[in-house]
From TrEMBL:
Biological processes, Gene Ontology terms: phosphorelay signal transduction system; regulation of DNA-templated transcription
Lineage: Bacteria, Bacillati, Bacillota, Bacilli, Bacillales
InterPro entries listed in its UniProt record: AfsR-DnrI-RedD_regulator, BTAD, CheY-like_superfamily, OmpR/PhoB-type_DNA-bd, Sig_transdc_resp-reg_C-effctor, Sig_transdc_resp-reg_receiver, TPR-like_helical_dom_sf, WH-like_DNA-bd_sf
GO molecular function, one term: DNA binding
Domain OmpR/PhoB-type as annotated: residue spans: 129-230
Protein's recorded name: Response regulator receiver protein
Family note: Belongs to the AfsR/DnrI/RedD regulatory family.
DNA-binding region(s), residue ranges: 129-230
Keyword Transcription regulation (UniProt): yes
Residues modified as 4-aspartylphosphate: 53
Domain (Response regulatory) ranges: 2-116
Organism of origin: Paenibacillus riograndensis
C-alpha cells in the first residue's frame, strides 16, 4: 500500500516511516512537514492512505482531510495525534483509524487490518454503486433505494452534519457559501471554532457518501462554499416538480399518470426533520399536491365517477382538515351521493377542528352552503 505522511515534526515523520516500513505492508510515497506540499503530492500521486497529524500549524488537520477527500473520495485517512481528545474526535468523524504518539508497532498492525478490510468493502461498494440505479426519496422521511432494495438509514454521528447534508441536498446544483452554513448552525461560535466545526461536519459527510460512485454524487469544495452534484440519481421531488411544470391536461389518457404522481407525495417534504429552512418548500409541495388533487376530483365529478371523486376528496380532508375549499367540495360530493349523514358529521367535525385549532368558525361560504342544505332537507 502506498502511503503519504504529513506531520509538522520531522522526527515524528521519520519515526512513523520506520515503523510502517518494519511492518512490510507499506511503500512510503512521501513525507511532508508542510501540509500544503503534502496536499499537492496526495492529489498528484496514486496512493492508498494518508497518515495525517491533526494538530498541524497553518491548516487544521481535519480541514486538510476534507480537502483531500474532495479530490479522492476513496482515499483512506489515519489521524495521528498526541492528544486523546483529537483521537476521540477522529472516531466521531468516522475516520478509518487513529494512532497516538508515540506510535507503537502493534497499534499500527491493527490499523493495517482495518485498512485492508475497509479497502475490500470499498471496492465492492463502488462496483455496486456504479452498476445499480439509485433513488433518493424526500417525501416522508429521507430514504435511499439501491435498485429495488431500501438501504439502511444513514447513521449520522452528529445532528449538524446531518442538517448540512440535507441543506446541501435541498440546494443541490447550487453553491452554498460557508458563511451561510456557519450562520445557520454556529452563529454564536467564535469564527475560528465555527469553521473548524464546519470542516469536521463536511469531512464526516464525505465519509458517509463513500458507498456512492463519485460519478453519481459529488460534494465539491469551491472557493466560497460547497456544491452538491447528483448525476443519474432519481429524486421523487424532482419528478413531482417536472410534472407540475409540464402542466399536463387531465384526460382519460393522462388520469393514471396524474394518480401515479400524486402517490409520490406520501408525506411532507423531509418529514420528521424539524428544519426551519425547509418549511417554505414543504408548503410549496403541499399546495401543489392539493391543487393537483382537487383538479383530479373535479375531473372525476365531471366524468360522473363520484366514487373516485369521493375517495380523493376524502384523502385531502383527512390529510389537511383545515383546507376549507376541499371541505366544501367534500360536503357537495357527499350530498350528490346521498350521504347525508356524512354531510352532517363532516360539518360538525370541521366546526370542532376550526374552533380548536384557530378559534374560528368555518368561512361564510361553507356556513351558507350548509344552512341552505339544511333548509332543503327540512323542506324535502
Amino acid at each position: 500500500m502506498k502511503a503519504i505522511l504529513i506531520d509538522d515534526e520531522e522526527l515524528a515523520l521519520k519515526y512513523l516511516e520506520h515503523q510502517l516500513l518494519m511492518l512490510g505492508d507499506f511503500e512510503i510515497a512521501g513525507k511532508y512537514t508542510d501540509p500544503l506540499q503534502g496536499k499537492q503530492m496526495v492529489e498528484e500521486t496514486d496512493i492508498d492512505i494518508v497518515f495525517l497529524d491533526i494538530h498541524i500549524p497553518e491548516l487544521n488537520g481535519i480541514e486538510l482531510a476534507e480537502m483531500l477527500l474532495e479530490h479522492k473520495p476513496s482515499l483512506q485517512v489515519v489521524f495521528v495525534t498526541a492528544y486523546d481528545e483529537y483521537a476521540i474526535k477522529a472516531f466521531e468523524l468516522n475516520a478509518l483509524d487513529y494512532v497516538l504518539k508515540p506510535v507503537h508497532p502493534h497499534r499500527l498492525s491493527l490499523t493495517v487490518q482495518r485498512l485492508n478490510s475497509h479497502l475490500k468493502a470499498g471496492i465492492a461498494a463502488s462496483l455496486t454503486a456504479q452498476s445499480k440505479s439509485w433513488k433518493f426519496l424526500m417525501f416522508d422521511e429521507f430514504r435511499i433505494y439501491e435498485g429495488m432494495q431500501e438501504r439502511a438509514p444513514l447513521q449520522w454521528r452528529t445532528a449538524k452534519a446531518q442538517e448540512i447534508f440535507f441543506y446541501l441536498l435541498h440546494h443541490r446544483g447550487k453553491v452554498v457559501s460557508k458563511a451561510t452554513l456557519i450562520e445557520l448552525l454556529w452563529a454564536d461560535f467564535d469564527l475560528n471554532r465555527a469553521y473548524s466545526q464546519l470542516y469536521t461536519a463536511v469531512y464526516h459527510i464525505r465519509r458517509m457518501l463513500e458507498p456512492f460512485s463519485r460519478d453519481r454524487i459529488l460534494l465539491q469544495n469551491t472557493a466560497d462554499g460547497y456544491l452538491l452534484k447528483l448525476e443519474g440519481i432519481y429524486l421523487d421531488v424532482d419528478e413531482f416538480d417536472r410534472f407540475v411544470k409540464a402542466g399536463m391536461e387531465l384526460s382519460k389518457d393522462t388520469v393514471s399518470e396524474y394518480e401515479r404522481i400524486l402517490k409520490l407525495f406520501k408525506s411532507e417534504y423531509l418529514e420528521g426533520y424539524d428544519y426551519v429552512w425547509a418549511e417554505l418548500e414543504r408548503q410549496r409541495f403541499q399546495l401543489q399536491w392539493i391543487r393537483l388533487k382537487q383538479n383530479l376530483v373535479h375531473w372525476y365529478v365531471k366524468s360522473e365517477d363520484l366514487e373516485q371523486a369521493f375517495k380523493h376528496i376524502e384523502h385531502i380532508c383527512t390529510r389537511y382538515p383545515l383546507e376549507e375549499q376541499a371541505q366544501l367540495l367534500y360536503l357537495k360530493i357527499c350530498d350528490r351521493m346521498g350521504f347525508h349523514f356524512l354531510v352532517q358529521r363532516q360539518y360538525a367535525l370541521l366546526e370542532t377542528i376550526m374552533e380548536a385549532e384557530l378559534s374560528e368558525k368555518p368561512n361564510q361560504e361553507i356556513v351558507k352552503w350548509y344552512k341552505d342544505w339544511e333548509k332543503k332537507r327540512q323542506k324535502g
